Amino acid sequence: xxxxxxxxxxxxxxxxxxxxxxxxxxxxxxxxxxxxxxxxxxxxxxxxxxxxxxxxxxxxxxxxxxxxxxxxxxxxxxxxxxxxxxxxxxxxxxxxxxxxxxxxxxxxxxxxxxxxxxxxxxxxxxxxxxxxxxxxxxxxxxxxxxxxxxxxxxxxxxxxxxxxxxxxxxxxxxxxxxxxxxxxxxxxxxxxxxxxxxxxxxxxxxxxxxxxxxxxxxxxxxxxxxxxxxxxxxxxxxxxxxxxxxxxxxxxxxxxxxxxxxxxxxxxxxxxxxxxxxxxxxxxxxxxxxxxxxxxxxxxxxxxxxxxxxxxxxxxxxxxxxxxxxxxxxxxxxxxxxxxxxxxxxxxxxxxxxxxxxxxxxxxxxxxxxxxxxxxxxxxxxxxxxxxxxxxxxxxxxxxxxxxxxxxxxxxxxx
Length: 415
Prior knowledge:
alpha/beta; 12% strand
């Protein structure tokens, strides 16, 4: 997928990502024989956010009555509508559940703390890739909705920008909540729904679940939640949630699934890595001793290793954008028109003691290597590595939800 959607993993991560882009672009320039020399400092300057957050200079608010501001919607055709090879046309009458999906960080600048959501800019093309890798999981069971929102710049997760970053994240969340309220009032019509997200999108999704779902009657409509790819501290659900808990068995409903992926040749989550965490009492910037982790092969919360023989399949998805497109903030117009076949039995998975989900780097890197460096941080592929596993579990959750008409507890699911 490339580095653009990776979350910030401590103080130096943004700089590392931008400097990597600088080196790539520098190589391109040398190959082309250009006299222009893109120094690393120039790349950081080009893509970095302003020195201060100022809401007065922020982009105009999206109007969710306009389909333009929905990256994915049942009345639009885009990459979340793509089908796996041999799958045939989607049966829309079987789509009994809605999915409200909050996309990950795609905005790396330049010039603003929050994305202007322009379709001719690089983030729009990055989002198209995300919709192909994430949204297509839900095609058979669900109607898929993904709002465009004024997401925070990737620097919002950098320790050098904590105060500005939290303001930018607050600003972004307001759009997510407004989109969800519009979705409920105008599209959902009381149907069961799933809330899903990735990275920054999962941070917002977790906040949305706490404020707009957990303590309200609407919770009975929640099939499950998938805020994947964020470092949620072990006590996150204890601090603010009254009802939602982690899923503990395949097909369990009314619960929440999260994890973050690393290769087994790495240290996993950085021991001193800090992330912004939103609580009803305010923002905190903390080093979680342990993070929440549900194993996406077993769907259990424990430290048991699940072997490759249990892995249903990962979906390789090559990005359509390049480093130069990010630097120039342009959408190059290349789009997806087909998915490849998922690869089964690709990796084992285990939730390590600190909450890192560890996978087999030796087996996965040939298929999911773009943007994965020596740290073996597979964050970009959190969803795609377990594409068929998630797809099967979601469809089981939907079936269980309708068979019971109420959340299915772990003790009631087939082991």
